Amino acid sequence: MNTKYIFVTGGVVSSLGKGIISSSLACLLKARGYRVTIQKFDPYINIDPGTLNPYEHGECYVTVDGHEADLDLGHYERFTDIQTTRANNVTTGRIYQSVIKKEREGVYLGKTVQIIPHITDEIKRHVKALGLKGNFDFVITEIGGTVGDIESLPYLESVRQLRWELGPDALCIHLTYVPYIAAAKELKTKPTQHSVKQLQEVGIQPDVLVLRTEKHIGTDMRRKIALFCNVSPDAVVQSIDVPSIYAVPVAMHEQHLDEIVMKKMNVPTPWGEPHMAPWMDFLKRMEHAKETVTIGLVGKYVELQDAYKSINESLFQAATYKDHRLKLVYIHSEKLTDANVDERLHGMDGIIIAPGFGHRGVDGKFVALKWCREHDVPTFGICLGMQCMVIEYARDVLGLHDANTTEIDERTANNVIDLMEEQKSITEKGGTMRLGAYECKLLPDSLAAKAYGKTTVSERHRHRFEFNENYRERFEAAGMRCVGENPVTHLVEVVEVPGKRWFMGTQYHPEYSSTVLHPHPLFLSFISAAIAYRDERVMQNGPQKTDK
Ligand code: GLN
Question: Is 392 known to be catalytic?
Fold first, then answer.
């Protein structure tokens, strides 16, 4: 079968969940045995989201090959278990960068370089790049932004051309919003009609409509929308609010979204049924979990929960597999002090010390870490969280009161965390960190090795600073073990304090590789320790109050 190209566009408003719909469809097609990939085209000018403030765009996700990507790629991986790469995320900035580079190299032979055909050709080349490798039956392309934005026009024009060129091998799913007007007690279809009109104005007739809604959309209304929008009535699907994003693939399958797509794209029959049993097991656990595990996340971007998206999802997946509900309490690291730490962290079954950049909020992380260590609460430091773990230990246990990372104090006499050699000469900010997956060897008797069930792992990185090797012996003598290191560079990857309930820091980001069907072993182990700690306290003191 030819590679099929599915385009997902969005209208009316942003944040309708195009990423979730794309991921859900990919999940269903994969569960039917097809080879699927998803890519995201972002209309902004940044070369990649690496330099974007998390407040603007949520977390920066990192692929195994070291690309700083849109957080939707995280959904793609969590829903499909298929690893993405640099090729799965393209921005307008990257498109223009390569067109301008070609222009400078004389590739265009003196022609005037224009949006059509040069930018659109470059977009089309990227759309087809993954498909041309012959590794995929379906390539799902999500077009970022909302139809009607100036920025998305070149992408829509490329989709229009591709649909023309590819015929039945291309299909467009348009996601819109059907608002419920409480005063009129009515769902309104007008925004959808307008949004489809806008799409038609640029020459694209959607094949399938997915309607985001808070209330059930009846058959009559779907028929009306179908009629107004030139879409067959069976291809109007609703995406009603569900308790968890992980229920969306099932909701889409119940309305036959996968079958509609396959039928419209002439996918050879017989199709059979998607193999969703493991996914359903996850949903069942989610539904039946009664007990709650409470985790505190200490970080500075707590106002915007998307800033820690992958950590949230990893914790949720792990808690679900341990048959628990997750209660995640965001603790603002800038507001955490010796005076309020007791009150703020009391009742937590486990604490995550979040990744991050810059000095803002690190003092709160030190306060939290000291409290966690002294109260022996399961604690997981990730990237900057691990670095803070090392610094706090140096200050309080090794007695190096001025210990620091040179990211915060360049002149510290005790640079227990320091810039990597190869980072010292770099002045550019984007894409220059240690990025992507690196191997890590673990000591067999470590907590980490036990959690993974193996001693060689590969995990993704995104950082500039490192544990300073010169201090290793002193840390080990004082009880903090370096249990994981890179086999080539011997850079320290994992630290632990044995004898504690669970006290571990990883220089890498395990959260990027936790998926619904393969929850990450470290998060499973951490959540188990948190549950055990809660049970211990319940045995001693009766039920705990965690109504924060
Ligand atoms: N700021 C730290 C570094 O660059 C940690 C980065 C992170 O937490 N992702 O090394």
Answer: no
CA distance 205 to 178: 19
Whether 509 is catalytic? yes
Question: pLDDT per residue over 249-293, tens digit each?
Answer: 999 999 999 999 999 999 998 888 999 999 999 999 999 999 999
Distance, CA of 278 to CA of 266 (rounded, Å): 28
Alpha helices in 48-189 (DSSP H): 54-57, 72-80, 92-104, 120-132, 153-166
DSSP at 119: I
pLDDT of residue 93 exceeding 80: yes
Asked if residue 365 has its Cβ within 6 Å of ligand 1, the reply is no
In sequence order, the 6+-apart residues with CB closer than 8 A to the CB of 41 are: 90, 91, 123, 126, 127, 141, 142, 143, 144, 155
Pick the catalytic residue: 68, 122, 392, 511?
511
pLDDT tens sequence across 456-509: 999 999 999 999 999 999 999 999 999 999 999 999 999 999 999 999 999 999
The structure tokens listed for 200 are 């038609």
What is the per-residue DSSP string for 268-318? PSP------HHHHHHHHHHHH--SEEEEEEEES-TTSGGGGHHHHHHHHHH
Residue 196 pLDDT > 60: yes
CA nearest 369: which of 346, 350, 388? 388
